[in-house]
Each structure stands twice: as C-alpha cells, then as structure tokens.
Amino acid sequence: MQEPTHILAGVIIQKCFDWRKLRAVGMALTAMLAFLSHGLLDKLANFTYHPAHADFHSAIWVSYHTTVLLVTILFLVLWWKPYWWGILFAMLPDIDWVFIHGQEILHIKIPFYREPHLHNLLHWLYARVPALSFLDHLPNNRENPWAILCEVVLVAVLLLIIRGSGKKKKEAT
Question: CA 129 to CA 132: how far, in whole Å?
Fold first, then answer.
C-alpha cells in the first residue's frame, strides 16, 4: 500500500487506544498494532496498482505517485501533531526502503541493510496466521493502472472511519 493508507491506519489505531488513564498501555497497543497494520495492508498491495519498478515515462505512474506524495504530505500536516505515535509505527517498516533505495541513490553500501528486514519480519509473522492465507490468493493487479481505484476506495473508507470517530467523540462530550 501507499503511504497515505498507512498514515490513516495509524491515525485510526491511535484513536482507538487514546486512553487517558492507561496511557502507557494505550501507547504500547498503538505502537504494536500500527506496526502490524503495515504488514496487513502490504498483503493487500498485490490487489492495488503497485508496479515493481518506477516508470518515469508513464504519465499514469508519474501522476499517481505525484498525487500519492502530495496526499502523504497533506495527511502528515493534518494528523502528525495529534497522532504522530500511531503514524510513526504504521510507517516504520518503510524505513527499509529508505535504507535500501538510499544506498542505490547515494552509491554507498550498508552491508547489514541490503534487504527489507522489517518487511520480512512482518511477512514472516503473517505467514504464521492461517486465517489470513486467503490474502495470498488475491488477484495480482500490481501492473494494472485501474487498480488505483482499489486503494482510492480503501483511503475513502478509512477517511470515513476517521470522520465518524470524530463525530462520536464530539457527541460524547
């Protein structure tokens, strides 16, 4: 999944565990579940437009990734301050790509960081949950630009959840 989806998952998870009296427990649960949410969302990535290689000659690829970048920045501006903890842990596994692609861009080698360790950990964990094995059989739409709509729908649903949780909180006060 793209970063906006991970950000929204982190916001929702932190909202669920925003406990005033048991703050440490809430923060621990938020960190753990936000981190795990990354792996679950990434299992869905084959169902969405997610080409293996960048294609700067494709207007669709460039437009989509420019939009993803702008939406990522917007979501971080909107939600970083109140939900930074959930967002941080939901995005944390993507540090793998910063290290791996950063080495390529900077022409350096970090011997211990040549593969995505955090993503591999999440894949290993989810491989041990038999109830989620159906996710491995979703159609592979990674090269299909129409599959952008799958992630757009997921982002819309997550935004509706956030909006709905905000209304409930206001009604409770």
Answer: 6
